């Protein structure tokens, strides 16, 4: 695949990651059982938190010098249903060790959050103990269906991310079981909290019966009013990471 069509900051990051994996083998190895632990963690009744171990971002720069293991354990104590761990090194301060440290300590499932551009990244996620991986329609386009099959082959659930109507149509056609709606336009970095509830309703109207996750821009309980009763989970990173007290911030955010 080539990624020249991906615009803006997202395009630059994606092309960097593609170069990182240019020589990686594509072999996924034998099929692994898929326990669907990430799916199960979000499928229970109510709105659940996927709390993110996030040290930096292109929009904010350095956020916090988090110890991934300690941060993830704090989120777990604060009631998070799952943890998302950045492994992109240049712009988000992530790495493989961060994910390994988290998965070695938690009882709740972890998502590898990165800009997946190569099958090797899925094999790595499984080997590093993740239970799910992020697949971005804005990056993979129509190939997201193939990468969904790859993820399932190595035993992972997949959070298939969209941020507009056209991407949602692709995710639905690909057979996604978990769809995340990102309020942030990754080409402009602009956040619009109306995006998630609108596309979540559209997915349900189209007959989607899987899980739906609202992503980006949430920092207070009031921000969640428009996704309660619609989404199964929210994925929150920057506001938690910068809070100074991750356990309390996670618990307070989800207080209705």
What does this structure look like?
It is globular and about 45 Å long. The protein has helices at residues 8-20, 37-43, 68-77, 89-92, 96-103, 119-127, 137-140, 144-153, 165-174, 195-205, 238-241, 246-253; strands spanning 48-53, 56-57, 61-62, 82-86, 110-113, 132-136, 157-162, 178-182, 211-215, 233-236. Helix content is 38%, strand content 17%. Helix 3 (68-77) packs across helix 5 and helix 8 (144-153) packs across helix 9 (165-174). The strands form 2 sheets. An 8-stranded parallel barrel has the order 1-4-5-6-7-8-9-10, surrounded by 7 helices. It starts with 7 loop residues before the first helix and ends with a helix. The protein has one domain (34-253): TIM Barrel. The chain has 256 residues and is an alpha/beta fold.
The CATH architecture would be Alpha-Beta Barrel
Instruction: State the helical fraction.
Output: 25-40%
Structural class: alpha/beta
Strand order of the largest sheet: 1-4-5-6-7-8-9-10
